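User: Could you walk me through two proteins back to back? I'd like the raw sequence and the structure tokens for each, with a short line separating them so I can tell where one ends and the next begins.

Assistant: Of course. Protein one, sequence then structure:
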Amino acid sequence: GIAQFLPHVHTERHTERRNCAMPTPSDATVDPSVPTEDPAWRELLAEPAERFERRIGKAKRLIYPRRTAEDWRKASFASDTALAAQLEAIPDNGPRIDTREVSREEFVRDWEQPRRPVVIRGATESWAAGAAGDRQGRGGAWSLGELLRQYGGERFKVGEDDDSYAVWLKLKYYLRYLATSRDDSPLYVFDSSFAERSGTSRLGRDYAPPHYFADDLFRYAGERRRPPYRWFVLGPARSGSYVHIDPLGTSAWNALLQGRKLWALLPPHVPKEVVQPTPKLHGGREAVAWWANVYPKLAAATDPDHRPLTLVQTAGETVYVPGGWWHCVLNLDVTVAVTQNLCPRSSFDSVWRRVVKSRPKMSKRLAERLAVDEPLLHQRTVELAKLPPEEKGGDSSSSSSSSSSSSDSDSDSGRRSRPRRDRRSRSRSRQDRRRAPASHRRSRSPA
């Protein structure tokens, strides 16, 4: 059940730690998802805590310079039994299909074109990323044991500082933090350049997009011109993505390899002030705070459109989020996932309007390729350019898609969108949702 959401409460003597310190295995329960019988993990957990505390503390201060150590646990979500019960009672109402039973044509007809969210089974079975590992760490390439062994010394993005520079941590430091964190909303790996960096590029070959999503029209923009579109995602319980809509009207799929994610989805026409209330939430603009404070009100809303579609995604399942849909995602335990954004053919009009407005260079390149490879779509771009402004917004998601983009989720944790500064990270607001070219220039790393 959802009991993993709450680490066990210990009666050991509490020792006051310096700013942003992390607990050690001696004073906090190791998350049950961690393969503690794996020799590499045993060695990691046995190392002195001070090394890890320094790196984690510096990363926290870079991302949230005004937070104190107390602020990271002020809401006490890690020990809130009432919240745990509330989350356990949330129904799983997500419709499900199986790739072995539903053809691509049926998927497009029944889900993509009508823009209906759905949970997909069977899409990850052939991936080298594989299934979650056992207590000895044996499992797929993305099991916690293999990630530590293969990539423990590599840096991954865990957030951005106030100047929009990426903040990086070595994976072994992050995994040690993940195993014992009692923060209200822990740091979250949401990394968009994992498939391009030499030390982690193999991760990009460990999976393939489900065949339902092969027709991504952004491929015509080219790898260097198109926005960042794929993310390696890793986080413990209580981490997640604050409620948002994906940028540029794009759709997304999120495949989960380990753990469980709790999703709330609302249709595009629901006003922003309904899903993102203005008063400051207890716990801040974080996914866990949204579920604690906002979800109960929406679940009881008199307007049925304001009641979220909720689902619990488990390992091996892929969630499809149509363009324009609001969604808030919370990790119920340690999760490993990959997510990609795309422009499906059915959403071309709404995506094209946003690309022309916010990415004129990309739209020019895309139009040139469409003229050669997709003449009918190129003709559609000409038609859209001739329409008066009031006739271009015929898509239900157009009024809200630009209002929020996270991730982070992403990723995915609810920080304000800022001007693009760090081209190394190809960073996006709230842990990686913004787009930027792939060149690597500057970043900040505590490790």
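----
Protein two, same layout:
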Amino acid sequence: SCRYSRLKLLEALLLNTTTTATMDSLSAEQKQEYATSFAALALYDGGAEVTSEQIKTLLDATNNEVEGYYPIIFANFLADPTKIATLITTPGGTGGGGG
């Protein structure tokens, strides 16, 4: 099922089982942002409340260390489940005006 595939992907990413070459190409800040993003998505996908405490707990459980402000920022922005749903279902920004 689609939900199972998403959960397996999130599990792999949260447990740091992605390829080393891909992870090595990211800055420390990017790794922290990705880990925090995936933790928030996992909470949302599991129907849990997205709070800084929940994000931190999930990051700790998966041995991901991030700066303390990342869970707070992400939780403040994504606490409303409709925001996450909108981010998932809305395509990226529009192209330039050309000219």
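The chain is about 65% helix and 0% strand.

Let me know if you want the two compared in more detail.
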